[in-house]
Design brief:
By secondary structure, the protein is an alpha+beta fold. It has a single domain, classed as Winged helix-like DNA-binding domain superfamily/Winged helix DNA-binding domain (Arc Repressor Mutant, subunit A, Orthogonal Bundle). It is 54% helix and 19% strand. The strands form two sheets. It has a three-stranded antiparallel sheet with strand order 3-5-4. It has a two-stranded antiparallel ribbon with strand order 1-2. β4 and β5 form a beta hairpin. The longest helix is centred in the last third of the chain and has 17 residues. It is globular.
């Protein structure tokens, strides 16, 4: 699942950085909640602020992270931005796959505190 790139010398470089960034974006519960709202359709920041009860700056930071990872896109409408999922089918498949993996492992990851 590592990102493969071809260097200028023609050699193949396998880097996990894209995968790490993607899973980092998905590791924050509020960002997952934002994605779930966007599965329902396009939202403005103010809509997400209302739904989530988070500060506008926090929602904007989460959206920037999700946008930087290619999970969401936005379009300007007047003075506001409308956010939507870039590829709802693949994002849903990824999240469903994660749920299936958690079920198969007895949800051990859900009990992990992240410390090592």
């Amino acid at each position: 699942m590592a990102m493969t790139t071809v260097t200028t010398e023609g050699s193949v470089d396998v880097s996990p950085l894209g995968t790490v960034a993607l899973f980092h974006a998905l590791a924050e519960p509020s960002r997952l909640t934002i994605l779930e709202h966007l599965f329902l359709g396009e939202h403005r920041v103010v809509d997400l602020v209302t739904h989530l009860g988070l500060a506008q700056s926090t929602v904007s930071q989460h959206l920037a992270c999700l946008r930087d990872c290619g999970l969401v896109t936005h379009r300007a409408v007047g003075r506001s931005s409308h956010y939507s999922l870039t590829d709802p089918t693949r994002i849903r498949s990824l999240l469903d796959g994660a749920e299936r993996l958690l079920d198969a492992t007895g949800r051990l990851a859900a009990r992990h505190d992240g410390g090592h």
